[in-house]
Amino acid sequence: MTGDARKTAEGLAYLSGFGNEHASEAVPGALPEGRNAPQRAPLGLYAEQLSGSAFTEPRAHNRRSWLYRIRPSAAHPAFTHTHNGWIRTAPFAESVPDPNRLRWNPLPEPTDGTDFLAGLWTLGGNGDAAQRSGMAVHLYHANASMDRVFSDADGELLIVPERGGLLLRTEFGLLGVEPGEVALIPRGVRFRVELLDAAPDGTAAPSARGYVCENYGAPFRLPDLGPIGANGLANARDFRAPVAAYEDVEGPVEVVNKFCGNLWTATYDHSPLDVVAWHGNHVPYVYDLRRFNVIGSISYDHPDPSIFTVLTAPSDTPGLAGVDFVVFAPRWLVGEDTFRPPYFHRNVMSEYMGLIEGAYDAKAEGFVPGGGSLHNMMSAHGPDQETFDRASAAELRPQKIDDGLAFMFETRWPVTLTQHAAGADHLQRHYDDVWRGLERHFRPAP
Ligand SMILES: O=C(O)Cc1cc(O)ccc1O
Ligand SMILES: [Fe+2]
């Protein structure tokens, strides 16, 4: 069930644009013309709608796709409850919400035969999946491709690889996603995660690793640009959706469905990745973070990191995100008479940060690729002592920050940890010490 022997993202075709009404057919004539549900769909296919928003939501936010498939999704046996592995779901009540600054090293290497789903490890989250609000932070590590198929009724999945490329076989077609890129699987869309080859000779990467934001709330969208104008930040045309590609497989296929926090499994007698044509706007996509158009201060002061928002999942309160996905991409710093790294701060929003490669400009050491930090609501944080000392004394020439790629999931509610994250061996025990050496410099008299 894992398809081609060699797994590479080369040569995959894509459709360009964010939120578009895309249309694609893997077989000419598979997509009906002029209507969604003809009496008999072309080529003997079944027509089916997948709704990602209520039917009646405003047109600008309405999301649905029409799928033309070999079998309707309804043709499946009953799901039975299975074990949840390391996956947990909001509401999170396993641990006492922690006001401390917390930082983790990367997950340990997975045991042999760990696929993406078995290697999905929930750090924590907020809200309530059944109420369709809030989010969860997960990490993953995997050294095997999935044979099974997964779908998440609880939310959309923003996948942020840190190590190893992934091939996502979805109902809508194939997406390749490498470290430095992100992929989004919309709520309810079925997919399988396979590991891309690390080398052209077909050698698979020893393991893949990364982060996942599970967004239970309103789907991620591009932020408004306000006075920035019509262009900039993540440009819509750089988002890529797959072209239709289908599996025509008869035989047992395990399908795992995450529903209100639990995993349910059923063995289908065919592959549900059997969509021959589709059209609509509830679609998976990939985005290369290096395409992000970074906008910042060209005069003085360090702007708030909202300027680096790639995608925002709005709440019911204007300007208040359920979760923002923010990237700290390569950029020039030119601020005059300015402390250039991130400032000291306390924030009503809660900040989970991860590192895709290199280093992050607020932390001299200890924040490593594959690791992560959590600065919950109002916890005091900012540059570590070494960064503060260096930046306070630095000569303010134009400076290129191009030695790392960090990101943040910034959310409106505190993140409560799972028990396994709160007690993890890879939780750093002395993170507070990075701010310990910040001495007083106050001199009341000049
Ligand atoms: O805490 C962090 O490193 C993230 C962050 C970056 C920044 O440039 C300003 C504020 C902020 O929370
Ligand atoms: Fe912060």
Automatic annotation (TrEMBL):
<comment type="subunit">
    <text>Hexamer; dimer of trimers.</text>
</comment>
<keyword id="KW-0585">Phenylalanine catabolism</keyword>
<feature type="domain" description="Homogentisate 1,2-dioxygenase N-terminal">
    <location>
        <begin position="13"/>
        <end position="289"/>
    </location>
</feature>
<comment type="function">
    <text>Involved in the catabolism of homogentisate (2,5-dihydroxyphenylacetate or 2,5-OH-PhAc), a central intermediate in the degradation of phenylalanine and tyrosine. Catalyzes the oxidative ring cleavage of the aromatic ring of homogentisate to yield maleylacetoacetate.</text>
</comment>
<dbReference type="Pfam" id="PF20510">
    <property type="entry name" value="HgmA_N"/>
</dbReference>
<dbReference type="GO" id="GO:0005737">
    <property type="term" value="C:cytoplasm"/>
</dbReference>
<feature type="binding site">
    <location>
        <position position="381"/>
    </location>
    <ligand>
        <name>homogentisate</name>
    </ligand>
</feature>
<keyword id="KW-0828">Tyrosine catabolism</keyword>
<dbReference type="InterPro" id="IPR014710">
    <property type="entry name" value="RmlC-like_jellyroll"/>
</dbReference>
<dbReference type="GO" id="GO:0006572">
    <property type="term" value="P:L-tyrosine catabolic process"/>
</dbReference>
<keyword id="KW-0223">Dioxygenase</keyword>
<feature type="domain" description="Homogentisate 1,2-dioxygenase C-terminal">
    <location>
        <begin position="290"/>
        <end position="442"/>
    </location>
</feature>
<feature type="binding site">
    <location>
        <position position="351"/>
    </location>
    <ligand>
        <name>Fe cation</name>
    </ligand>
</feature>
<protein>
    <recommendedName>
        <fullName>Homogentisate 1,2-dioxygenase</fullName>
        <ecNumber>1.13.11.5</ecNumber>
    </recommendedName>
</protein>
<keyword id="KW-0560">Oxidoreductase</keyword>
<dbReference type="InterPro" id="IPR022950">
    <property type="entry name" value="Homogentis_dOase_bac"/>
</dbReference>
<dbReference type="InterPro" id="IPR005708">
    <property type="entry name" value="Homogentis_dOase"/>
</dbReference>
<feature type="binding site">
    <location>
        <position position="360"/>
    </location>
    <ligand>
        <name>homogentisate</name>
    </ligand>
</feature>
<dbReference type="InterPro" id="IPR046451">
    <property type="entry name" value="HgmA_C"/>
</dbReference>
<comment type="pathway">
    <text>Amino-acid degradation; L-phenylalanine degradation; acetoacetate and fumarate from L-phenylalanine: step 4/6.</text>
</comment>
<feature type="binding site">
    <location>
        <position position="381"/>
    </location>
    <ligand>
        <name>Fe cation</name>
    </ligand>
</feature>
<dbReference type="GO" id="GO:0004411">
    <property type="term" value="F:homogentisate 1,2-dioxygenase activity"/>
</dbReference>
<keyword id="KW-0479">Metal-binding</keyword>
<dbReference type="GO" id="GO:0005506">
    <property type="term" value="F:iron ion binding"/>
</dbReference>
<dbReference type="InterPro" id="IPR046452">
    <property type="entry name" value="HgmA_N"/>
</dbReference>
<dbReference type="InterPro" id="IPR011051">
    <property type="entry name" value="RmlC_Cupin_sf"/>
</dbReference>
<feature type="active site" description="Proton acceptor">
    <location>
        <position position="302"/>
    </location>
</feature>
<comment type="similarity">
    <text>Belongs to the homogentisate dioxygenase family.</text>
</comment>
<keyword id="KW-0408">Iron</keyword>
<dbReference type="GO" id="GO:0006559">
    <property type="term" value="P:L-phenylalanine catabolic process"/>
</dbReference>
<feature type="binding site">
    <location>
        <position position="345"/>
    </location>
    <ligand>
        <name>Fe cation</name>
    </ligand>
</feature>
<dbReference type="Pfam" id="PF04209">
    <property type="entry name" value="HgmA_C"/>
</dbReference>
